[in-house]
Amino acid sequence: xxxxxxLRDIHLTFGGAPLLNGASLAVSEGERLCLVGRNGSGxxxxxxxxxxxxxxxxxxxxxxxxxxxRYLPQEPDLTGFATTLAYAEAGLGPQDDPYRARxxxxxxxxxxxxxxxxxxxxEIRRAALARxxxxxxxxxxLDEPTNHLDLPLIExxxxxxxxxxxxxxxxxxxxxxxxTLSRSCIWLDRGITRRLxxxxxxxxxxxxxxxxxxxxxxHKLDRKIAMEEDWVRxxxxxxxxxxxxxxxxxxTMKRNRREDRKTLGTVxxxxxxxxxxxxxxxxxxxxxxxxxxxxxxxxxxxxIGRGDRVGIVGPNGAGKTTLLNLLxxxxxxxxGTVRLGxxxxxxTLDQSRDSLDPSMTLQxxxxxxxxxxxxxxxxxxxxxxxxxxxxxxxxxxRIRVSVLSGGERGRLMLARALAKPSNxxxLDEPTNDLDLETLELLQETLADYPGTVLLVSHDRxxxxxxxxxxxxxxxxxxxxxxxxxxxxxxxxxGHGVEARSVAAPKxxxxxxxxxxxxxxxxxxxxxxxxxxxxxxxxxxIKELEAxxxxxxxxxxxxxxxxxxxxxxxxxxxxxxxxxxxxxxxEDEWLAVEMRRxxxxx
Length: 601
Known about the structure:
It is a single chain. A hairpin with a 2-residue loop joins β15 and β16 (379-382). The strands form 5 sheets. Strands 5-6-7-3-8-9 form a 6-stranded mixed β-sheet, sandwiched between helices. The protein is of the alpha/beta class. The protein has 4 domains: 5-201, P-loop containing nucleotide triphosphate hydrolases (Rossmann fold), CATH 3.40.50.300; 206-260; 280-493, Rossmann fold (3-Layer(aba) Sandwich); 513-600, Valyl-tRNA synthetase, C-terminal domain (Helix Hairpins). Helices cover 41% and strands 21% of the residues.
């Protein structure tokens, strides 16, 4: 049976460098393909060419007559639609089931009445999945379908795609997702594609064997070039006319060697060194945290020692980040105690990337805007050399953070975090947007890391490879500790992470029906005031922290009181007011952030 979709000898050049250099793709009926390759290798572009959205410079795209295709982009655009239902139904054809879009929206936790202008990243992804899956097309092209999804939805999506009749072409950084669904692999590397007619579970071993064979061939070519260069130096002058072809062959071999070595490098993770922490890192006893009537953590206890790798898993909105902040001491519990060990040097990598100023250059983001050297574990390194360790080219030093891809931002965040000496690493969704090779090297770095790791992740494979202890959500406010990784947790309790159940709203008080109605109406999205607070409060908190530091420095002058008692009193009052304002701003931000997390869940 002929393939439904064929791409032949696809060439495409961006910015002077060839991105695709003879790539090909064939998709047959019911096939399960995963498209893999490093960030920047052209996977998303090749998928857009397959969808007919991008025209290659040269090459052929053949689509069998009557075949339907649906494409899920990394960044869906819902502009122009009044509701999520209208957006999802717009993807249906005249012969499609008109009710399937609404059914999928409900399965994905949406009502269909949501205003696209006020959706979170997770809600946008879910609406786009409903639109893409609703028609049940012949071919599904899915670019990072698990982005912004929590574990219950990832596992639901796995089951849904496993049952579909559509042929699948998947791009994903989630190895467990690819292993479960794929039956063949297309590896896009240096502009060309190679096919493995086995699932992703065997891909990494096969890829390593291919690269090892290339290295052996390169070594043989180097030896042959050295022999030919000897001949050129000592024999070409006497046999010039007769051996012009041999000399030409030498130039060809050198050119081929240069082309072979244009492969992307590997991420070189630095060794993270710091003084050893105390044997006890964290001890929590009976801690609890609530927001209003909702319990986030109830009577939770744990003891974390030096060298432990602790993962936290649960659905969106369950309070994973809150629990992480309780354990690292950045958030105080309502009751119970958290004791931190001595000599802790903590480095945090958060999931939001908000600490990256989009207007900064890549070099300034690494150096803090000071010169062209970066301190890596206390040692000075030129920023360009350190950038290369994380697959950045020297000419990217002056580009703005705002133009970096999601994967490049992820590598930049890693580069900044791992440059600092530490004995405790706090990682909140560290695998977002990282390619497979960077993931592997991050895992190897964590395996050799002598300190303690606390991480929140939806990546099941990453948790299995890194974590030796798991804290899992087991219902409202309830968290249970399991030995081992994600698969070990399933073996112990018989199931994975389940969706968070939302308690039914309490009956409205007779004395305040209007207030209750307003709250109920606004439950589905953040108010304008809340959204504004979420955007502006971090900057306000930084300003207050700087003001407090300035006032404290002024009061540290031992002569200020004798010189000007009135100025001393004014400064002291200003310090008290600034500290109160900071506490209020932090409390407000935490409350709005918890509400955002609940809505996104």
